[in-house]
Amino acid sequence: MINKKKILPYLLVSPYLVHFMLFVAFPVGFSIVLTFHKWNIISPMEFTGLNNYIRLFNDKTFIRSISNTLIFLVIHIPLQIIVALFLAEILNQKIKLRGAFRGAFFLPVIVSGVVVTILWQQLYGYDTGLLNRLLTGIGIGKIGWLTDPNIAMASIAVMATWKNVGLYIVLFLVGLQTVPTQYYEAADLEGANHLQKFFRITLPMINPTIFMVVILSTIGGFSLFIEPYIMTGGGPLNSTMSAVLYIYKQGFFYYHMGYAATLGLFFAFIILAVVMIQKKFIEKDH
Amino acid sequence: MKKFKSILFYTALTISALTFVYPFYWMVMASIAPENEIGNLTLIPTSLTLSSYSQMLDKIPIGGAFINSLIVASSITFGVLVFGSMIGYALSKLMFKGRNLIFYVIIFTMTLPFQITLIPQYIIMVKFGWIDTYWALIVPYLINALSIIMFRQYFKSIPDSLIDAARLDGCNELQIIFRILWPNSMPAIITIGIITFMASWNEVLWPLIVIREESLMTMPQLVTLFAVGGRAESQLGVKLASAVMLALPIVLAYLFFQKYFIQSMASAGIKE
User: Fold this and answer.
1) What is the pLDDT of residues A219-259, one digit of tens each?
2) Are residue B131 and residue B16 in the same domain, yes or no?
3) What ipTM is given for this predicted complex?
4) When comparing pLDDT for A147 and A6, which is higher?
């Protein structure tokens, strides 16, 4: 009886342990082994020493995929925070039909990225896309949203903002509601205006939410896949090649398993490093 | 003046809301418009036709893909709820050696970027012979770190006396979890259920890697390959019709349970 009681907790957590060994621990270990090999899965593994690492640092596409991700983040993060905060501030007022507005902003969040990407591919279309029709109508002329290498990544960043911002509006709303109303009342007594109240009270109080948005967006930026896969295939001129799309191409298009694993390992390191640096900044600020 | 201001305010708010809704409206309209009108379409096509839908149905097995998606997403959600609550229960209500270690390992796996495990996980699927089977789509997702953490946290708020009383009544541990804790944990179950189902319904990278056989494809994968490959023959209407079919089930569920969707996604976001 006592024995049974002792074993029971382990029985309950055993599915986790099996899953962890199989889908986390072993893959992490094996991916490190893979980085020293050349392998196409069919023929035997071939030990190649540091070849994959040397190749990585000379690979222009790898470097391009990192700079693409940085371009994405530099546009996506500020845009996301500004739009989400602005709309959350508005929804936090006493307004009519608040639930309906919130529901509308949230709609793209629940829809598959595949749907959003197919839809925006048409909106961004050069000849008959809605955006270019609108711009032509007001006399600006057509823009190569997805065909101009200088613009394509920015276009994807804008689309990603449109898709995710609803979630961050809701998170900011939760954050805004934690700000005690007495703070605003005290500020009113001292004659503070709207902007002062926003920068002196609201912003510092919702700092944790802002940092969460930054970290989630960073992880999201390095996870971009289906957007360039459907819209551009990584082009034009690799200008929308993302980290995950490049791993996918090396792994499942060319069957370079060793090199794809090396890419995966490096991208994972970069993500962890960037997130850790961001966290340091957060702690410093408090 | 005040009235003017409020009219201006609501106009601006409505315009920003339309920015998020109108593209979907346009997509639905374009999918039922004649192909040659899509390039000029803004509000309503001059005539309605289902030809895009019937052409799409001729080209891809979208019905089968819907069934596949339903089987995969339901199995994953069921597994995540059952395993998540078992593990969450052990971690919150039972004392045993190594409990904290397991908890920290779970937290650690949550921070591990998936980019590092993608290639080896594919190789495991190949070695198991699971390529082109439901197993590859379901098994790796049956256990989810975030759901374990959420169950653990929720169960902690349930008083031990409830569990002790059940034990005195002769309940075994599984009965305690599923008969006593589950009915008292509906908010957690709804939240985890919704985010898990949605995430697996919308997942596309992993199916693209492990499924090549068209009859086993889930909806997002089938629609993606249809849009990217040549089979839509650059017909916009047909592509958009397939996208509408993919969006429809989740949007319908969202219309009925909007509040739960928003709350669930928000609480999952905060936990992460």
Assistant:
1) 999 999 999 999 999 989 999 999 999 999 999 999 999 99
2) no
3) 0.92
4) A147
Q: Which of B20, B209, B270 sits opposite A171 (nearest CB)?
A: B270
> How buried is B30 (Cβ within 10 angstroms: 0-12 exposed, 13-18 middle, 19+ buried)?
buried
Do residues B117 and B216 share a domain?
yes
Beta-ladder partners of A46: A38
Residues of the domain holding B160: 53-271
| Cβ–Cβ below 8 Å for A19 and B143 | yes
Chain B CB contacts of A110 under 8 Å are 198, 250-251, 254, 261, 265
How many of the other CB atoms lie within 10 Å of CB of A282?
16
Residue B94 confidence (pLDDT) above 70: yes
Residues in B 123-162 with any Cβ partner in A closer than 8 A: 123-124, 126, 140, 142-143, 148
How sure is the predictor about A48, in pLDDT bands with cuts at 50, 70 and 90? very high
A255 has a chain B CB within 8 A of its CB: no
Count how many domains chain B has. 2
Shortest distance, CA B236 to any CA of chain A (angstroms): 8
Work out how many domains chain A is built from and give that number.
Answer: 1
Tell me what pLDDT residue B72 has: 97
Which of A112, A166, A268 lies closest to B115 in CB terms? A268
Which pLDDT band, with edges at 50, 70 and 90, does A212 fall under? confident
Extract the runs of DSSP E, i.e. beta strands, from B28-176: none
Is residue B6 located within the same domain as residue B127? no
- What is the residue-wise DSSP string for B217-263? --HHHHHHHHHHSGGGTT-HHHHHHHHHHHHHHHHHHHHHSHHHHHH
Strands (E), chain A: 37-38, 46-47
> Are B14 and B78 part of one and the same domain?
no
Give A2's pLDDT tier (boundaries 50, 70, 90).
low
Say if the Cβ atoms of B17 and A9 lie within 8 Å: no
Residues 35-94 of A with CB under 8 A from B: 41, 87, 90
